[in-house]
UniProtKB/TrEMBL annotation:
Span of domain GST C-terminal: 158-285
UniProt keyword Transferase, yes or no: yes
Residues that bind glutathione: W83
Annotated Gene Ontology cellular component terms: cytoplasm
Ranges annotated as biased composition (Polar residues): 294-305
Organism: Geodermatophilus siccatus
Name used for this protein in its record: Putative glutathione S-transferase
Swiss-Prot/TrEMBL keywords: Transferase
SUPFAM superfamilies according to UniProt: GST C-terminal domain-like, Thioredoxin-like
Molecular functions (GO terms): glutathione transferase activity
UniProt cross-references to InterPro entries, sorted A to Z: Glutathione-S-Trfase_C-like, Glutathione-S-Trfase_C_sf, Glutathione_S-Trfase, Glutathione_S-Trfase_N, GST_Omega-like_C, GST_Omega/GSH, Thioredoxin-like_sf
Residues covered by region (Disordered): 294-345
Active site residues per record: C50, Y181
Length: 345
């Protein structure tokens, strides 16, 4: 099952619990685990629809690793078996030659029976999956791949902030990133009510925290902001209605909405967001929640480009670093899939 399918978790007493049994392998600078950092060796397989994969796309881009780690792109929908490369000519990834991400998992683990999830890093020479541990993967891009970071790459996981960052990221993960799923896949009224209360308690905490500082950890962007951003970008188009997280829209929370727009308008963030793919994924794949598979036309996303005023809080988005350049031509989101675009695949 995909990470984006309710089958990647289980429901007990009506409560959704995510299956977090990922492949724990890591690609490290010293290669101690058998997977050494090496330019051109690995392929990052993602889907623009998936918030967990979206994180890896942003980190790779901010650090300037596009020429070091290639990227394969799955389409927005999948079946019960796997994400598929249906956006590529012939429906096959041009580097791996696979039709399904599942093939990379089975190449290494012939009897693999857990979630076929994105993001996944694949070893190109053997065409075998290395890891799908999305929580560790992006931290390793920041800390293990430093030899290949671009000039001016930001420090997304500053050593001095790590203890507090880890606590903030853990709360964001359990209460917000996963909290919206807990609402959406609740199997009873009681489970939903509890999930709803937990989610909004956390969003109120974030609203207050971000009222007085530009980013989650202060004056510069860190991994914590990336992890929150990918949920916020999907909130009004999907989670508010589809997952019944509907106390307020993101646009009705002043600090969070301004913060989300600030990030969206920062190079490396909004230019990774494909609103039509995001909506197509959730409303089509989650047929148990949306049996008709009808994809809503709204909301209007042109408001993501309106002024946010967060500059008044000071800070430097990239700290001592610089913004990334434009994305590679073949990795750009189509213009009609961006803010205000109405395109459907």
């Amino acid at each position: 099952m995909s990470e984006e399918n309710s089958g990647s978790g289980y429901v007990t007493s009506g409560e959704f619990t995510r299956d977090t049994n990922y492949i724990p392998d890591r690609i490290t600078a010293d290669g101690a685990g058998g997977w050494p950092v090496e330019a051109g060796r690995y392929r990052l397989v993602v889907a623009r629809a998936c918030p967990w994969a979206n994180r890896a796309v942003i980190v790779r881009r901010l650090l300037g690793l596009e020429d070091v780690i290639s990227m394969g792109m799955c389409g927005p929908t999948h079946d019960e078996r796997s994400w598929t490369f249906d956006l590529d000519p012939g429906g096959r990834d041009p580097v791996l030659g696979y039709e399904r991400l599942q093939e990379a998992f089975l190449a290494r683990f012939p009897h693999y029976d857990r979630g076929i999830t994105v993001p996944a890093l694949v070893d190109v020479p053997t065409r075998q999956v290395v890891t799908n541990d999305f929580l560790q993967m992006t931290l390793d891009l920041s800390t293990e791949w430093t030899a290949y970071h671009r000039d001016g790459a930001p420090d997304l996981y500053p050593e001095a902030l790590r203890d507090e960052m880890d606590e903030v990221m853990q709360r964001v993960y359990t209460e917000v990133n996963n909290g919206v799923y807990r609402c959406g896949f609740a199997g009873s009224q009681g489970a939903y009510d509890g999930a709803y209360d937990r989610l909004w308690t956390a969003l109120d905490w974030l609203e207050e925290r971000l009222s007085g500082q530009r980013y989650l950890m202060g004056g510069s962007i860190t991994e914590a902001d990336i992890r929150l951003f990918t949920t916020l970008a999907r909130f009004d188009p999907v989670y508010h209605g589809h997952f019944k997280a509907n106390r307020q829209k993101l646009t009705e929370m002043p600090a969070l909405w301004a913060y989300a727009r600030d990030l969206f308008q920062t190079p490396g963030f909004g230019d990774t967001i494909d609103f039509p793919q995001i909506k197509e994924h959730y409303y089509v794949v989650h047929a148990d929640i949306n049996p008709t598979q009808v994809i809503p036309q709204g909301p209007d996303t042109s408001n993501w480009l309106t002024p946010h005023g967060r500059e008044e809080l000071g800070g430097r988005p990239f700290g001592d670093g610089t913004p990334p350049g434009p994305p590679p031509e073949d990795e750009r989101v189509p213009a009609d899939h961006g803010p205000g675009g109405l395109g459907h695949r």
